[in-house]
Hints:
The structure holds two protein chains of two kinds.
Chain A: E1 4-7, E2 10-14, E3 19-25, E4 31-37, E5 44-49, E6 55-58, E7 61-65, E8 71-76, E9 85-92, E10 103-104, E11 108-113
Parallel strand pairs in A: 2-11
Antiparallel strand pairs in A: 1-3, 3-8, 4-5, 4-9, 6-7, 7-8, 9-10, 9-11
Chain B: E1 5-7, E2 10-13, E3 19-24, E4 31-38, E5 42-50, E6 65-69, E7 75-79, E8 88-95, E9 105-106, E10 110-114
Parallel strand pairs in B: 2-10
Antiparallel strand pairs in B: 1-3, 3-7, 4-5, 4-8, 6-7, 8-9, 8-10
Amino acid sequence: TQLLEQSPQFLSIQEGENLTVYCNSSSVFSSLQWYRQEPGEGPVLLVTVVTGGEVKKLKRLTFQFGDARKDSSLHITAAQPGDTGLYLCAGAGGIKAAGNKLTFGGGTRVLVKP
Amino acid sequence: GAGVSQSPSNKVTEKGKDVELRCDPISGHTALYWYRQSLGQGLEFLIYFQGNSAPDKSGLPSDRFSAERTGGSVSTLTIQRTQQEDSAVYLCASSLYDSSYNEQFFGPGTRLTVL
């Protein structure tokens, strides 16, 4: 069974602080995606990382994909209350997976207090 | 343009009853996925459809769960003889084609409560 473990499970910070969320797996994935989900809504894709060692920046968000394509991190600089939400990492196209269904991590709930 | 829509948004049912959940994917998307999100289990894959290929049912938790996709568009997830542990949010997603690099667009989900 392919598993993705996210840490921490919950993060509460003050506006302006930085935060990092980690996503680790024992399996290799073809790609790893980060989603954000708000209450009552489905997850919304933030970024897809494909190449080992890849770094992608999306405004204040920086995403890294590990060299071995098994782990990833999401770093938010100068967090704002609008960054509050559930952050989910998801792996696709794993070696043992048929098709491209997503395997999700357990999620990190982020609360940014003003 | 319209995104993925799901109905109903909320469903309360009694244990033992059957329920049907509907998903309307984005027009033109060939791949459709069903996931389940619950407090204890996180977000887990159930089933996916790609074009005319046989669906991947590997994530269905029991034979009480089934799904179909008619005409390559609308999909219905059916749960027979519901149990309390079936209570969860059922999410549907679609993507333009079936690729590990292709974004999956999620609907808002159907919250199922089994009393």
